[in-house]
Design a protein that fits this description.
The chain is α/β, with parallel strands linked by helices. It has one domain: Alanine racemase (TIM Barrel). 41% of the residues lie in helices and 20% in strands. The protein is built from 9 helices and 8 strands. The protein has an 8-stranded parallel beta sheet. The longest helix is centred in the last third of the chain and has 21 residues. The two termini are 30 Å apart. The structure holds pyridoxal-5'-phosphate (PLP). Pyridoxal-5'-phosphate (PLP) binds next to strand 8 and helix 9.
Length: 222
Amino acid sequence: MSNITHNVKEILSEIPEYVHLVAVAKTRTAEEIEEAIRAGVKIIGENYVQEAEKVFPLVKEKAEWHFIGSMQKNKINKIIRIFDMIETINSFEMAEEVDKRCAKIGRIMPILIEVNSGREPQKSGVMPEDVKEVVTRISTLKNVRILGLMTMGPRTGDPEEARPYFKLTKEIFDEIKEAQIPNVSMKFLSMGMSNSYKVAIEEGANVVRIGTKIFGERIYKK
Ligand SMILES: *Cc1c(COP(=O)(O)O)cnc(C)c1O
């Protein structure tokens, strides 16, 4: 068994059945992605539109595609044609832009709202105290559909340090769920990466985004 196959099978055997595994494919080849899919991966996460365009034609029907990168307005038309879900909607304005373009091609885009749970100035995402209001505003748009929240949390070596940020995001998630905002389904809570997914699941994640632990260390070629 090669490493990718082994790693996917190991992760799938460890995580509860209700948790969705997103294999984060940045810098990976179509062959590597296909191997992960053969081993049982059902969702591929991509940060870069250009990369997704390269591998997508080869593997599109074999998996679902989640956009997990930073949103740029000039990439939206491509994003809404390639991806089945956008996990990184970080403002009402961005959702409105996606809504407009989706209306033109007659599709309703499933989205998650990205929460800046660490309140980090350099990170994208809605500040914790603003999430409910932003969700409520976005819920009035006809061509996007909020299905939950996503967070990265501050990058640390120790997954325990990420726990309070996952806890906070789960609290916001529950609060919005209880508010029963029309047109909003709090179904997915996407948090946790290679070093932190176990803690994230303990804190209520049902989507985890894992790259390195499936494919190995990333080597950036220039
Ligand atoms: C790269 C990335 C991941 C995966 O990180 P790993 O540490 O390689 O598992 C998860 N989520 C997002 C948004 C990413 O950009």
